[in-house]
Design a protein that fits this description.
This protein has about 70 residues and is mainly beta. The protein has one helix and five strands.
């Protein structure tokens, strides 16, 4: 099993929607447990990394795609 390259500030789309109806989540913290926040309602939750990787449909944006802000 390969480990998905997840980073803080990545945005992911889940297979099943959150109870509020949103499917887009932003990753806050990565480790053996991953902390994510729903982009629709703002609820944050902590999930096991293995369960989260199975629940992810696709990675929308990664932290490396966004511009760094250092000039």
């Amino acid at each position: 099993m390969t480990i998905l390259p997840l980073h803080p500030e990545d945005r992911v789309q889940m297979k099943k929607p959150h109870p509020c109806g949103g499917k887009i989540f932003r990753i806050l913290r990565v480790g053996s447990q991953v902390r994510v926040v729903c982009e629709s309602c703002g609820r944050d939750m902590t999930l096991d990394r293995v369960k989260l990787e199975k629940a992810i449909k696709q990675i929308l944006t990664t932290a490396t795609d966004s511009p760094t802000g250092s000039n």
